Amino acid sequence: MPSTRPNQLFRNLNAKIASIPMILTAVVVFLGGTVWTVVYSFTDSKLLPRMRWVGLDQYERLWNTSRWLISIENLLIFGILVLIFSLVIGFVLAALLDQKIRFEDTFRTIFLYPFALSFIVTGLVWQWLLNPDFGVQSVIRSLGFENFNFDPLYNADIVIYGILIAALWQGTGLVMVLMLAGLRGIDEDIWKAARVDGIPMWKTYLFIVIPMMRPIFITTLVIITTGIVKVYDLVVAQTGGGPGIASEVPAKYVYDMMFLSQNLGQGFAASTIMLLTVMIVVIPWAYLEFGGKGKRHG
């Protein structure tokens, strides 16, 4: 038994040695940068970092800033709707493709293709499509519906929903592929047993298949949520945060504070809040996926 551990330690030694530079880079750049950001969020750094402590002043100022509060409100609306619609649409599309339809590969490619585009490209495409002068509104009006109005990007009350449309168009394909992989992992005998018992298909999905796909749903949820928290490119490309600050999001607030307003301390405080949000999502997932399994095996 004592000789087993040294053998395991030297197993795949070349691969472990090759991964050292990557691990060091991750530790120095990610962990070091994270600690540096959190530390300087307690200072009054402006154009350049400076170690003049102000305690929680930056955080108090942050939560008393209407622009930041609007960005949080927008992120909550955008995030909740993206989670709901992307999971529902992605699962429905996956369920349809799982029926072994003809040209499945073609449909899968079409649905997944938008995810290959950058958010900047997606934002510019949908900025054009939603433009009232030559986009969807113009096309439908040319068909005779003169009173049709659809200009979400120019209406402060609904601009966040215009960004939502673009986000769903780009991200739903990835959710579909993840769900399809989960569905393909379901034992065929389960479907056969459900048919023999006369269980309707929707009940089979709702009470049997979906609970079995719990790990897929959790992983997908984490991927979507982390993407929501750091959404930036899409907003900049579509609206630039406008009209006014109606489509402001936290990531854009951080960028503007650090590079336009030259207020590093405020930008660091906002980015620390974003980091905490991601950790609130990732840590429970990591515990469920790894910690829980270890205890069960133990």
From TrEMBL:
Coiled-coil region: none
Keyword entries, A-Z: Cell membrane, Membrane, Transmembrane, Transmembrane helix, Transport
Bilayer disposition of the protein: Multi-pass membrane protein
Primary location: membrane
Entry's transmembrane regions: 20-42, 75-97, 109-129, 158-183, 204-229, 267-288
Record PROSITE patterns: ABC_TM1
Ranges for domain ABC transmembrane type-1: 72-285
Subcellular location: Cell membrane
Signal peptide span: none
Gene3D superfamilies: MetI-like
Family to which the UniProt record says this protein belongs: Belongs to the binding-protein-dependent transport system permease family.
PANTHER family: ABC TRANSPORTER PERMEASE PROTEIN
Name of this protein: Sugar ABC transporter permease
Organism classification: Bacteria, Pseudomonadati, Pseudomonadota, Alphaproteobacteria, Hyphomicrobiales
